[in-house]
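DUF1985 domain-containing protein
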Amino acid sequence: MGNLEWMNGQLLVLIAENHVKKLNKKIWTDMISFHIGNRMVSFRKNYLALITGFKMGGEKPIVPGEDNICDIWKRFFNGRTNVSRADITRAFEKFDNIHVQKEPIDKVKLVVLNLIANFIIGNQKSVKCPPMYINMVDDLDLVKQYPWGDEIWRDLLEKVPKWTQNIKKAIKDRFTFLGFVFALQIWAFESFPALRLANVCTVEEGRRSMWPRLLKWSVPNKTNIATLADAIFQNEEFEYQPMKPTEEKLKIPEIQELHRKKTVKLAKRSNLTLKHQLSKEEADFAIHELEKAIAEIQDDHEAHAEPTDSVPTDCNHKEDVGMKEQNGESAIRSLCVI
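Structure:
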């Protein structure tokens, strides 16, 4: 995925250990909060859009379920309903040696399915792929239309609290993170400058303007826990930089709408008077007038926000986990909004 040779397991563990449980699951669904040092920081839904470029919002296309077994499902997986991540990876890696009738487009479909299986579902070999995803890749137009950003965000809201529970209950220093853990890692790279200064992550020349943002990052080395502690988790004066879209990316409808909703919510939470319901024109005008005030209160909001309540990896608290790319960079672009 980009130049991320290593998934930083220690970083993910430390982030998950500091997760703040939501008091009410019906509200605060646009952020996942963590209490780090003496500050409350939040990973937001609009950050996920900037990190992944995945489609959010709009009408969700109808995808056949397991009762409708598609052609690629029949040929490569014998129509079995319990297709595992390992089965998908095996079909992808041994594509040329599988003795079934094949078309050139089949390789593309398996690349996309392999991406979904390894980065969105989970990397446990036994984890099962939802039949809907297999049916979806048989029609690549459906893959492009599907709001993957919304799907991943809902999964993160559910999975992150479970990460914390698994860490607390674990007897050994070995944890399994299910869901799109890449998002949390990139959020940390983007938001904590100390990680870059400590050489935990880097941006190579020629990749600084890459989109989506997860493609620009590299992890040059394995990281020890002392480095992470000194940089952030035991540093009361760590710097936190909330992610912001560039003017260019604000032209993307999905990101523009997420940013607009976030700004209105910040205004409301900061006791700045807005009508309960605004037309788009009224909201845009109000946002324009409040931008300066909101910019001043945004960092304070990140530090004092009320607590709130995921593709995956096994993570060792003592040792980072190596992740090998499997055509991830080219495949991820097929899921992006641009």
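Residues 270-282, 306-327 have pLDDT under 50 and may be disordered.
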